[in-house]
Amino acid sequence: MNSIFEPVIGLEVHVQLNTATKIFCGCSTAFGATPNSQTCPVCLGLPGALPVLNRQVVENAITAGLATNCQIAPRSIFARKNYFYPDLPKGYQISQYELPICEHGWLDIETDNGGKRIGITRIHMEEDAGKLLHAEESEGGSSLVDLNRACTPLLEIVSEPDMRSSDEAVAYLKKLHQIVVYLGITDGNMEEGSFRCDANVSVRPHGQEKFGTRAELKNINSFRFVKEAIEYEIDRQIELIEDGGKVVQETRLFNADTGITRSMRGKEEAHDYRYFPDPDLLPLNVDSDWIERVRGELPELPAAKRQRYQEQLGLSDYDAEVLAAERPMAEYFERCTALHDNPKACANWTMGEVQRGLNEQSISIGECPVTPELLTGLIARIDDNTISNKIAKQVFDQIWQTGKSADVIIEEQGLKQVTDTGAIEALVDEVIAANPAQVEQFRAGQEKVLGFFVGQVMKASKGKANPQMVNELLRNKLKG
Fold it and tell me: Residues 298-326: pLDDT tens digits?
């Protein structure tokens, strides 16, 4: 990247809320329904139809605002944002403008260059538009309109222009995505459009305070594409300026196949939308009791959870990061630690065998056949030396397949670890007697040969001998 210029980046993120019904009517928000089957006079904008605000949307907005350190406005107003688009039935969008529900928040991010605080200008509620379906040219080049998505509730989260690289933008976007999914207010599915991003990108000479002319990159739906689109746009603007041209304020689309952005339309300013208060919706008043109730119901967020895992449970930074990344996984792990006081073992098995099984079968932790109760029952049998770690993995697979407890499987299959010194000593003597050449190698200083003997004894015991006892007996006898 050209070192003469500094990028300036701000993100506008649209979060589709997972309420059962739309923001101003009772139509379903379920994804994938037959086109135009989830509509009514309100979301179609028919004359005389009046919007009624969905209380859960407001609650979700307060939740998001508190989780991102915003101030919650005691009074906010819905406005009409006027513009024409074929999938906008009313010819305007109900949104918020001058008085949004949340303002002045922030998120702290971590990048390879250290930590940084990114300001959040505002969070406001609004309705989504419908969706245009463009047919192939072979079908006549027509476009169809599906209005199922019209009036679906959105939160628009607008950052300050505080980011100076694509890496910072992606770090902010990932943290925001993690938080809103953790809160349970959205499924965060980027492919289905539940979490999508507009990036405002400009460049300016290093040391200059005034911002350059920005271009808006519209509706990007993956972290990788956000990074690629921002980097392309930075290079495009720098090259344009260095060639004597001027950056035009416009909206551009990113083509993921070609990796380039192209002009879509001139960028509108606020006055172009002719905002005015919606006459059909009263001002929204949110009292302090409501705010404090929502605050009290906030879940522990990933950053706080990671810190607690390290300080109270003694986990490494890596283990804490992995286990706290997704709320269902964290809840599974915490249920395990509540049942059995061995956090490290619970972490290892959750991140190891449990995650392996989930990946192999492409299922979620909520569908895992090995419940926390079954997993901790297995860990307890390792801790009390009933079975070895090697046998435990076999038992885990049996639990996964049958749903039986570790105790039942161990008893049925005779898998208890052999801890009788005499029995193990007899096996050790047999292995030493059968391998005189390796004995000489060990006594000549080749200590690695010990692993060979351990393997032979474990094989002879069918994996049931206590490995620690095997090691101790072998060392004593081989040094003989």
Answer: 999 999 999 999 999 999 999 999 999 99
